Structure formats: C-alpha cells, structure tokens
Amino acid sequence: MHQLQPNPSTSSGQAPSTSPEQAEAQASAATAKRGRAIVLTSGKGGVGKTTTAANLGTALARRGASVVLIDADVGLRNLDIVLGLESRVQHHLLDVLEERASIDDALVADKHSEKLFLLAAAQSREKDEVETAKMQALVSRLCERFDYVLIDSPAGIELGFKNAVAGADEAIVICTPEVAAVRDVDRVVGLLGNRFKPQLIINRLRPHLVRRGKMLSVDDVNGILRLPLLGVIADEPEIIVTTNRGEPLALQTHTATGAAYHAIAARVAGEDVPAPMPAAAKPSFAERLSAFFGGKRR
Amino acid sequence: MIEFLKRLFGQPGSSATAKERLRLVLMTDHLELAPEMIEKMKRDLVDVISRFVEVDRDRIDVTFERQDATLAMLANIPILSVNRPNGNGTHKPPEQPAPLPEASAPAAAGPSAAPPSAKAGSDKPPVRKRRRRKKSQRAAPAPAT
C-alpha cells in the first residue's frame, strides 16, 4: 500500500501542484529539453484515454502551446479517427522508430488546431515490435521541438503500456466511476510510482446518477485513489457526436464539457484554476436537506 | 414531493455497494502487492509475542481470508515454551531453532507435531496458538430501510 502513496507534497489535496511542475519546467529547460512528456493511461480499456488525449491536445494547442500526440496503441490505431485525421496518415510511429520515415514526414498536422500534430500508431503491427529504448529516444527528441508530448497509452499493463510510459516524465490517469476502472487505476498508479507524479481525470461521470446514489462520486473515487485531481468530465452525448465527426469537443469552448477540457489544459499548464466539475454534480437543496436529516443516502 | 420523501428515506443506492466492494478489493490487492509489508508485520508480531513466550519462528504461517465484508488475518504461531527468564517480560528472542528436528518432521504433520527444540524439550509440551485478528472493521452497517 505504501508504494501507492504519491509524493507527500502533492497528495494532501486537490490543489494543483504548480510549484513542482514549474520546477520541472525549469529543470528541463536547463537540459535543453523544453517540452513535457505526459503519458495518458488507465489500465482498463474503454475509459476514454484516446478521447481525452485528443481533447487535451486540442485544448493545449488552443492555448498557444505546440503539442504532439503520440498514439502508442500499436496495432489498434484510433487517435487519428478521433481527431478526424485518418485520411492524412502516411507514416506511423514504427516507421519513425525503424527509420523508414523522418519525424517530419510522419507528423500529421491537425485540421483544426495549428500547433497540434499527430504521430499515428502502426495499424498492422504488434505492440512488442516497439523497442523501449527507441521510444524513449523519440520522445526526448520530440520534447526538444514541442511544448507538450502527449502519449496515448494502450490499455493493459504489458509491454505496450511500458513502452508508452518509457519516455514520459509525467502521467495523467483516466478513471471512470466504476469499481473495475478504479481498481485498475490503483494498480497502474502503483506501477508508475512517484516518479511520474500521476494526476487524475475522472471521466464519464453522470451527475444525476451520483445524486441518486447509483454511481460512485468524485469523492468516492478520489477518496480511494488520493491523486491530485485535474478535473471531472461528464458523460455527455456531445462527446459521442463530436467523435463521430472527428472534431474534438474541446473545439467548442462554449459547451460545458469543451470548457472543462480547457480548464484541465490550464491546470496541466500550471495555472491555478479550479478543477472543472460537471455542474449538476453539486448537491441540490433536497440533497443537502436529506444530508442534514441524518445523511442516510450516500 | 413523494420523490423527495422516497429519496429521503429510500434505500441506499448501488454506489454504496460499489464503494464497499471497491474498498475490499483494493485492500486485498494491496496486501498481495506488498509481501514485504506482510513479512515486516509478521516479524513485529512475533517480536511482541516473543517477549512472553518462545515461538517457533520458522513455522509461523500468516494468511488473509475474506469473510463477507471483512478481511481477516489468520496467524498460526507455534509456541515452543512458556519461558520467561527475566521477569520483566523482555525475553530475548530465541536463536535459530535446531534444524535437525525441523527437517525430520514431516511438514504435513501440522499443529500436534511441532518439533521440540533442544531447549523446549525439558519444558512444556508444545502448544499452538491461533490468533485471529480483524484487519478491518466495516465502517457502518448498511441501513435497513
């Protein structure tokens, strides 16, 4: 259990740990490496890693940062679809790692955000064909050119995960309010250890179910995981619609969920803004009253 | 209004069940993940017991068992002798038990056949102490209605 405890300086609450991040930014500047390599992972599949990667990348790029998204899910290329770039992919990650294509040939410029680029996964290859050392070298080369290198990890904790994590300095873990997802995140955080300073995004929360006591709440989930919380994303039909179209929801800053991605991006960038919460997650008057009368319902 | 009253007095939602299941499953996971922690706990446990009785350190068996809503720790600690040389309760932990009887005794013989060590032979017949300790207490009983 002890190994799962994050750094004491960051575990105490939800507050963003801006100072360690800034310290690291300075440290990386000193070593001629300007970008931050962040892996997005979860253990469990289907919790929204790829959607989150696309939206966070979009939101960071909209803030003016240069961002490259690496789809590390070799064999199951998906990030290109979510970004609507599937027809533009010419070369993939393994082409670069095996030096059949240069980084510039393989990077796909995003349709919507000027400073966003994708390095797609190979579709017809296996995860174990990636060499960990080469992956590390690639990520550190990309860090020289980009402000953010976001690595979309495959599900699982096997070699694909290890390769995705290998080059990263930091981790963002994505968790849905389900027993299995929380358990897997707990395991992944244990595997990552303190070095990656894992931060949490809770995805697919349904506030009305939480209110009726039919879904784990943010406090339930993070009462167990105890990670610095970047934000909470509601389970919105808009996310499905935008994914269908290949246009990340973060492009629509007027929507609540789009704005939530931007708030998360601001927090990742070290800004001291509150972690976004789906509006309806706050207790209604009836619930506060019910809590007052003995708090039977949880 | 009826909806409100239902909410106020209704049964706890399934999230409470999920939370409880999650708590338990993680406790089990963490125990599996931290064998060194169990080893340390075992050592500390034996150190405490050794202040009062002489135990067979090589044959201690600690397991964890799931019982409904709780996790129980079961410790099997063979006692070699009740032996307190200094009355102040600070018994020096016994040195390595003689390896010969250990090797000759079949492992399956179990509790009744705890091998008497050289020292213990003259004293009392070996007894076996079984400790059962609740690792966790359920936070609160689920409300019935």
Keywords:
heterodimer; A: 298 residues; alpha/beta; Rossmann fold; eight-stranded mixed beta sheet; 8 strands; 42% helix; 14% strand; disordered N terminus; B: 145 residues; alpha+beta; four-stranded antiparallel beta sheet; 34% helix; elongated; disordered C terminus
Overview of the structural elements:
The complex is a heterodimer of chains A (298) and B (145). With 298 residues, chain A is an alpha/beta fold. Chain A has one domain: P-loop containing nucleotide triphosphate hydrolases (Rossmann fold). Helix content of chain A is 42%, strand content 14%. Chain A is built from 14 helices and 8 strands. Chain A has helices spanning 8-11, 18-30, 49-62, 79-83, 93-97, 103-106, 132-145, 159-166, 179-192, 207-211, 218-225, 237-245, 256-268, 285-292; strands at 36-41, 67-71, 108-109, 116-119, 148-152, 170-175, 199-205, 229-234. Chain A has an 8-stranded mixed β-sheet, sandwiched between helices. The two termini of chain A are 26 Å apart. Chain B is of the alpha+beta class. Chain B has a domain at 35-87 and 110-137. Chain B has helices spanning 2-9, 14-33, 35-50, 99-104, and strands spanning 54-55, 61-67, 70-81, 127-134. In chain B, strands 1, 2, 3 and 4 form a 4-stranded antiparallel β-sheet that branches. In chain B, a hairpin with a 2-residue loop joins strand 2 (61-67) and strand 3 (70-81). Chain B starts with a helix and ends in an 11-residue tail after the last strand.
